[in-house]
Amino acid sequence: MGAALAGIKVLDLSRVLAGPWCTQVLADLGADVIKVERPGAGDDTRHWGPPFLRDTQGQDTREASYFTACNRNKRSITVDMAHPEGQALLRRMAAEADVVVENFKVGGLRQYGLDYDSLSALNPRLVYCSITGFGQDGPYAERAGYDLMVQAMCGLMSVTGQADDEPGGGPLKVGVAVVDVFTGLYASNAILAALHARQASGRGQYIDMALLDVGVAVLANQAAGFLATGNAPARAGNIHPSLAPYQDFPTRDGNVLLAIGNDGQFARFCAAIGSPAWAQDARFATNTARVRHRDALLALMGPVMLLRTTAEWIALLEDRAVPCGPINTIAQAFDDPQVQARGLRVDLPRDAGDGIAGIATVASPMRLSETPVDYRRAPPALGQHTDEVLRDLGLDAAAIAALRESKAI
After folding, report:
1. Which of 36, 204, 320, 399 could form a disulfide with 395 if both were Cys (CB 3.0 to 4.6 A apart)?
2. In percent, how much of the chain has pLDDT > 70?
3. Is Ribonucleoprotein among the key words of this record (predicted)?
C-alpha cells in the first residue's frame, strides 16, 4: 500500500505554527502539501531566531530552527498573492487541490479571490480550513489571536504554575505553544473527517477553527470539574487536583516524579519503602482519602523521598510497577534509551544550495502498520520547489520566467 493520504493535494496558505502543524500532519501521512510563501521573506518563523540552522561548516545561517518544527515533507513555492498574476496562479492551484488551509484574519483573503466562496465555486470538492484566533463570528472575530494571549484568556494559565502563596507563584504559560499545536491537531482531524464525508456527498466543506475554542476544549478535566461544581480550579504547581501522590518530590540529588494513579500502586509504594501501614491508614487507603489528606501524606513522604537519589528511587519503584521517572531536560530526553529506540530523532538530507546539508526533526508519533509515515523531504528552503510545482501545473519554462519577471513569483 502507498501512503495513507497519497493523491491528496493540499494548498497551504498558512504560516507560523497552528496551520503549518496541521499541514505537516497531512504531509507526514502522504499528502502533497504545497507551502505558499511570500517572495523574499517567507513564513514568519524562518526569521524567529536564534537558534538558527547551521551550515556544513558549523556556522549559523539565516534560517531559524523554529521553521523546521512544522514544515517537513512540504514543497515550498513563493507567490505574491497581492499580484493579480499571483492570485490567478493560486486559484488555478486551488482548482486542482483537495484541501486549502489558511490562517489570515477573518475575510482577509476575499480581496484576492482566495476565500472559501470564491474557491469552492471553482472546485466544489474543496475542503477549506480557516484557522483564526477567535473564529469567524462573535465579538472578538476581528481580533488577532496568538497562542500566549489565548493561553491567558482560556484559563490555561490560571491552572499552570505554582500557587499564589508559593515562591514564584502566579500565572504561567506552558513552555510550548500548546494551543497552536492542539489547534493544528484538531484542524487535521477535521480535514480528514471532511475528506471522508466528501466520499459520500461529492462535496467539500468549510472548516472554522479557532484557537480560543481549542484552548477551552483542552482544559479537559479542569473544565469538567468547573462545570460540575461551579468552582474554578486554581494553580497547584505539579500537584494533580484529583490524584495523590501524583507530583514531583525532591530526592537526595535532584527530583523524581511519582505518578501513582490507583490504590494498588500506592500500596506497592508503601511496601517498597517499608511503611505498609500507610496503605491501611484510613486517611490514605483510597485515592479520595489521599486527596483530602494530601498535606498529611506529603508531610510523611517528603523526608522519606530525600533518603535516596533519583536513580535509586527509579530502580526501586520501577521494579515494583510504581510509575515514576526523572525530570529530564530536552537534551536528556533525546539521550533516553527509549526515545532512541523509538527513533524519535529523524535526520533528513536537504540539497537546496544554501550550505545546509541536512536537518534533524522530531519523528511523527503516528505509527501505522500498513501505511506508515514517509519522511520524504526535509523542511524546504524558501521557494525551493517553485519551478517544480509550476511545471507540475503545466507551465513551461517561458511562462515561469515571465511570472518571475513580473514578480508574481
Report:
1. 399
2. 100
3. no
